[in-house]
């Protein structure tokens, strides 16, 4: 999410038409998702993607789908999720993986501080 939206649930990529925390590409994915309201299913609108719970659920479903396509390869899944090709795809994968290593460092610091309390 850091790479996609900088953790902004209202992020919009005007160029690509991606919305929310996970920057869901609505025009591509809209035919695959619906939202339950009462006993009926309704097609998701792009506005639904501003709801954090909806955006995260849809984002995780897409990640699961991409992980299956990548045969369990995390870097392959990241590449599929990005929708990029070639060198741009490789640069995106490296960028996401470097963010992950930063979070590990922060987590260790946070856990150490929590133990001091």
TrEMBL record:
Position of the signal peptide: none
InterPro entries recorded: Lysozyme-like_dom_sf, Transglycosylase_SLT_dom_1
Domain Transglycosylase SLT: 1-65
Protein name: Putative lytic transglycosylase
Native source organism of the sequence: Leptospirillum ferrooxidans (strain C2-3)
């Amino acid at each position: 999410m850091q790479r996609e939206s900088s953790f902004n649930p209202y992020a919009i990529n005007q160029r690509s038409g991606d919305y929310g925390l996970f920057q869901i590409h609505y025009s591509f994915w809209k035919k695959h998702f619906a939202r339950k309201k009462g006993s009926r299913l309704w097609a998701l609108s792009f506005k639904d993607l501003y709801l954090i719970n909806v955006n995260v659920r849809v984002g995780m479903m897409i990640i699961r789908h991409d992980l299956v396509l990548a045969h369990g390869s995390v870097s392959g899944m990241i590449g599929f999720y990005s929708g990029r090709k070639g060198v741009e795809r490789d640069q995106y994968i490296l960028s996401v993986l470097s963010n992950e290593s930063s979070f590990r460092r922060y987590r260790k610091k946070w856990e150490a501080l929590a133990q001091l309390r």
